[in-house]
Design brief:
about 180 residues, alpha/beta, Glutaredoxin, five-stranded mixed beta sheet, 9 strands, about 30% helix, globular
């Protein structure tokens, strides 16, 4: 199975978010979208990265809309985001036939060695920031990933690994 990437049409989806109703990729045609695949909200690295995303998203909303996927259950996701006033959808991806379909559609698979090392490094940073491990959900070996989709629904940025907002913002500012 090949990997979807830059130049490919972004796979469509139509899923229920915990904070903005049903969300479809078609809702974003005519806009740029940053699609972020987190792991699950019990993960301290994901908690830390989510806080970083919230801190930087308001300043950069004019560049692209955000769509956030998680493998957390709707209950856990709803509880986690409850304290935040978000202007982007958080979508718990349902497991279908033992797989997280949207993750598979975007070829977001298990972490490689480089991502594993970065997760461990970032876990130390998250711990120093006071993040603690919560409930285990999803696949523990799941890689995070992010994509930028242009106004026509084509992928113009693809990255599998730990969220790097500076690189995403650099890319958005250069295009």
């Amino acid at each position: 199975m090949g990997s979807i990437g830059v130049g490919d049409a972004a796979p469509g989806f139509n899923l229920e978010s915990v904070n903005m109703g049903t969300v479809s990729l078609g809702d974003y045609i005519g806009k740029r979208a940053v699609i972020i695949f987190g792991r699950y909200f019990g993960c301290p690295v994901c908690q830390y990265d989510f806080d970083e995303l919230i801190a930087k998203v308001d300043k950069n909303r004019e560049k692209a809309e955000i769509i956030y996927f998680t493998q957390s259950s709707p209950e856990v996701a709803r509880k986690f985001i409850m304290e935040h006033e978000l202007e982007f959808p958080v979508i718990p991806v349902p497991k279908e036939d033992g797989h997280y379909k949207v993750y598979n559609d975007y070829s977001v698979r298990n972490m490689g060695i480089g991502t594993t090392i970065e997760i461990l490094r970032r876990a130390s940073i998250a711990k120093k920031a006071g993040k603690t491990h919560g409930e285990y959900e999803g696949r523990e070996t799941q890689s995070p990933a992010d994509f930028v989709v242009d106004e026509t629904g084509k992928i113009i940025w693809a990255h599998r690994g730990v969220l790097d907002l500076e690189k995403i913002l650099g890319f958005l500012n250069s295009t």
